[in-house]
Sequence to fold (552 residues):
Amino acid sequence: MKQKLTFFLYLAILILPNLILCLTELMPLAGKLALVLLPLGVYWVCLSLSPRLSRTMWWMFPVLFLGAFNIVLSYLFGRGVIAVDMWLNIATSSPAEMGEMLSQIYPGVVLVVVIYIPTLVYAAVDIRRRTELPRLFLRVQRRMGVAVLLLSLPFTVVAIRSGAWAIRNDLFPVNVCYNVRLALARQVHSAQYLRRSADFVYGSVPLDTARTPKVLVFVIGETSRATNWQLAGYGRETTPLLSATPGIMFFPDCMSQSNTTHKSVPILLSPATADNYSVLYHSKGLLAAFNEAGYRTAFVSNEPRNNSFNDRLGEQAQEVLFLRDKYSGTPMDSLLLPEVQRILGSTQGNLMLVVHSYGSHSTYSDRYLPQQAHFRPDKVIKATRANRDILINAYDNTIRYTDYLLHGIIEQLRQLHRPAALVYISDHGEDIYDDSRNLFLHASPWPSYYQLHVPLLIWTDEEYRQEYPERVELLEQRRYEPLQSDCVFPTILGLGGISTPYGQDSLALTSPRYETKQRRTYISDHNAPLPLDFCLEEEDLRVMKQRGMRPY
Fold:
């Protein structure tokens, strides 16, 4: 009797992720029934194939692992399965970053540990006991499994024919295995990038050769959402220095095209956009375009090396520095300032400098020094809805720290007394238990407004405004346009006075040929461009409308 009960316990544990997805996923009723019944029938048959039940359960360990992983993601993000981007996030995140993330979601981790570890331990002990199920019981269960499989077939057919459901996208764990295959293919693309892009040429033409050499600094932020920026209308003083800085142009309606760093940063540093992301695999980046135009180029990063496209695009600069090659642990972003000062002081000609900060990456209170905590209390033991006020205090402190960093760079540029411009944008934003969905962090299979609304600002000094008044005027005219992060690459080329066939003038805020976006897009997990309003939920669209933003 005990072994028979164990059979059904194992079956329940195997199908648990599908039951959870049935509750969380948006799909037709036939799709939900297929999602549960089809795998249930398969698991039922598999468990009935051998009298050594626990041995069969251990053979199904990959299914158990994927199920446990997906339950954690369901706890964290509310919906979706283990996406391609999640596998790539694991591949491109440092152990420290993964440890920080897991420490914030440990209730979900504890849940799967409580369910799965005792099950596997019991199965291992049971294997050593060599217990077996009666063969008559197995035959009956095998027939039951086949019956469930047959029952699932009409629902599966109806779901597929509806056009809103597909096995490779919606049937767990088939969809996860398909995503693993896509992730491996993208890793191959990444590994082959240097060879594929070796012969790429921008054909850059400098348009300002007779003028005073200029300095451009592009600062890429991390996990900074516009909602918490004082410049964007936030009620707290999170950007007091920038708010008092002349020459700042803040663009309040800018959405990132991805909620993951490994996609959003290449969109900032290359011609790739959500609508033509595949060009990334064979083209060079922003720094290469400036190299061709005769600029001195430099790349300074506080991100960990991870052999991703982000690294490869940055390494196209003439000078490359990763702070973590110089300092142990996770350096503070303020350590970027002396490196910027050194590079600025050693360049007399045109300079293009890209700075990649660590910004507001969780754990928030580790991103600044204790004495720099303006909003208190700011120390969180665990991330929960109950601790949201403390999380927001810590998060707002990281924005103030970014304010300090950007103001410091601007002051360094101002002291050069030659045409200078700074562009800042964050790669994506962050959820911090903002509404009834209780979402936290970023990189979820489906984005939220808070993950995509990012701060974009451009600063120009007096010398730049006098030298290039037409560019500054065009920027001012487009401050309230509905923008996306794909405007940054061509806009920086425009600020630098560089003409190239890859310039995408219709996206450049500095170009007379700029065209207002009629439809904003988001790059899906499978690298397809999706309408922004299709990806967001009703709650997200409502918040955008409240803020006067066009949700498409």
